[in-house]
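Morning, I've got a small favour to ask if you have a moment. I've been staring at a protein lately and its backbone has me curious. You're getting the sequence in one-letter code plus the fold written as tokens. I've dropped the whole record in just underneath, so have a look:
=====
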Amino acid sequence: MRLLKLVPDNTNIGFVRLRFWAFGLTALLTLLAIGAVATRGLNLGVDFVGGLMIEAKFQQVPVIDKVRTTVDALNVGEVSLQQFGDPKTVSIRLPLPASTDEGATNAVVNKVKVALAATNPDVTFSRYDTVSGKVSTELIRNGLLAVFIAVLAIAIFSWLRYEWQFGVSTFVAIVHDLLMTLGFFAITRLEFDLNIVAAVLTIIGYSINDKIVIDDRIRENMRKYRQMDIGALIDLSVNETLPRTVMTSVTILLALGSLLIFGGHVLQGFTAAMMLGIVVGTYSSVYVSSSLLQALGLRAENFDRKPASPAGGNAERITKRDR
């Protein structure tokens, strides 16, 4: 039985040769993501904005204006409605009642349920969440702090373990992945809550894992082939790790695809963020951060060890290849 190979043996793609196209595409997507976040903003969940959120599911696609009128008539505060997951599911957001007592919150929830059930007997309510304004402020601060510390710590680790160029390229790649994720949520208007923060941190972990594998191979080859052109050396390293990168990404995407289909709309945002992060993280590791090492002036001569003989003439072939 033949083994499945997603990447053929002796693959020799010139990633560095395409670096200017990759840098241009990356810059364009980054600007679009920043613009989307700045103009549209994120659809922050109750975790971050505070208040009361009730999730109602109808058998038929509801008329949003009719639902809004029904809830407004209860005089429970300014109402915000949004369809998410599917057109039949509506998120109803309300301010918390003046009393912090749990009974007051339950009373508001029950009033909304009774009013909607009177006009839509088939409506069901899957969940409701409450978060105070003080708690939501703390969650925003802690979420931002967690992401910032993670990015900074990873960049410092790469700097200390390798050369400063690796630290800079790692930082750029991770920031790119974060901005792509934020831009995606700004455009799609999917709810951004603590689950998405967890997905973002997971994306960072996956992206750095993929990048460390490539960086390790680049450093290893720099010690073996000190006289090789750095662009050819980077191409050699990325191509050598490409089967592992592709196989890992495909298997994770298959698992996430199943979760997206069968996990329900509650996990839809988390799964979508993860799938986007896998694709973007793989792209940034292969096309952006690795090629950026050459632009930052990385040289194989920085390593003091004597070069090893190129195995099988592979290094000589890539050195002579026209980039």
